[in-house]
Amino acid sequence: MPSGGHRHRRRRSWSRPRAQITIGRALPVLVMILTVVADILTPDRERFDRLLVAAPALAAVTWSVRGTVVIGLVAMALRGLLGALRGEPFVPDLLANETVLATVTAAAVWVSRVRARHERDLREVTAVAEVVQRVVLRPLAPRLGPLALHLLYVAAAAKARIGGDFYEAVRVPGGVRLMLGDVQGKGLGAVETASVLLGSFRAAVDDAPDLPALADRLEKGLNRFGAWDPGSDAAERFATVVLVEIPDDTDVVRLLSCGHPAPLLQHGARVRPVDFSDPSLPVSLAGLADARHRVEEVPFAPGDRLLLFTDGVSETRDRAGTFYPLEERMRRWAEEPGERLPALLHGDLVAYGADGLDDDVAAILVERLPDAALVREPSL
What we know:
2 domains, elongated
C-alpha cells in the first residue's frame, strides 16, 4: 500500500487460489492411497490398481517436474506391489501395466516442464507489467506543502493496479496542483488514454500559467497522440477531468471541471458540492464547442477538506437502484481523521453496492493543515 492512501487490486479471494493449489497437490497422493486401499480390500476380480495411472497425470497440473517424476515412480512401485500381492505374472500383465504407467509418467513430466516454463514466463511478464503500472500511476505523496492527501484507488479489472481512473498531484512554485480524471470505457484502451493524459499533465503542470492553460495542454496532448497513432483506441475516447490549484499563501482553492463530478467541500460539519456555473466539456470533446474554460475559486481555510472523486464512487447503487449517498457519508465522517477516510469509504462502497464494485473507483481527500501541523519541507 503506497503512502498517502489506499490502493486496492480487486480480488475474489486470496485464500481460494491457495486452497485450489493445496487440493490439486493433494489429489495425486489421495488417488494412490484410495486406490491401494480399495484394491486390497476388494476381491481380486475387482481391479482398482489401473487407477494409479491418474496420479502422475494429476501431478503434472500442480507439482514440479521433480515432484511429478516422484509421483510417477511411487505409482509404478505401488502397481508392482499390488500385482505381486495378487500373484500376477511379470510377463505379460505386470510388464504391460508398468509400461503404460511409465509412458503416462513421461508424458506428465513433459507437461509439467512446459507448464513450469509458461508460469516462469508469466511471472516475468507480470513483474514488468507491475513496474509499468507503478510508473504510469505513481503513489500519491501524503504531504505536499500545507496539504495532506489521502487516496482511495480501486481498479475494476481483476489483478490490475490501474484502470481508466487516473490522478496526479504535484508541488509547483507557490502551491499545489492536482488532477483527477475518468476515461470513458474500460480495459486497456482506457488505461492507454489515462497514461496519455497523465503524461500531458506532468509535462505542463510546472509551466502552465493557470488552470485553463493546463486544460488546453491536456486537450492538445490527447489530440496529438491520436494524430500520431490514428489506429489507437485512445484517439476515440474522452475523459472527464477536474483540475485543482491550491496556493500556499491564500486560503482558497481554484477548480476547473471538464465534465467531471463536482468535488465536495467540507467546512466543519458542513458539506456541499462545489458549484460549477459553466463546466467545460470532457477532454477530447472541447472541439465540439467553445473551448473557453471557467475557473471557480472558493474559500479553503486551514482545517477544511476537499473530496475529489470519480463516478465509480457517486454512481454506486444499492439493490433498489439508489445512488450512493456520498454527501451524507461525508457529514457522518466529519470528525474522522483524514487518513481513515479512504478505508471507511472503500468498505462502505463495497457494502452498499448491489454487486460490490463493478467500476473503477478513485477518490482523493485534500486537507489544508492548520498552521500548527505544518512541518518544514526537506529541501531538494
